[in-house]
Amino acid sequence: MLFHRILPQYKTAISTYLTPTHCRLYIANLVTSRRMTNIEAAKKLAAYRAVDENLPPHAKVIGIGSGSTVVYVAERIGQLPNKDDFVCISTGFQSKQLIIDNGLKLGQIEQHPSIDIAFDGADEVDPQLNLIKGGGACLFQEKLVASASDKLIIVADFRKQSKHLGQNWRQGVPIEVVPIAFTKLINDLKRLGAKSVDLRQGGKAKAGPVITDNNNFILDADFGIIEDPKSLHLQLKQLVGVVDTGLFTGITEKVYFGEESGEVTTWDGVVTGSTTEEVIAESK
Question: Which spans in the chain are helix H?
Answer without folding.
Answer: 2-6, 11-17, 20-54, 70-78, 93-101, 139-147, 182-191, 229-237, 276-283
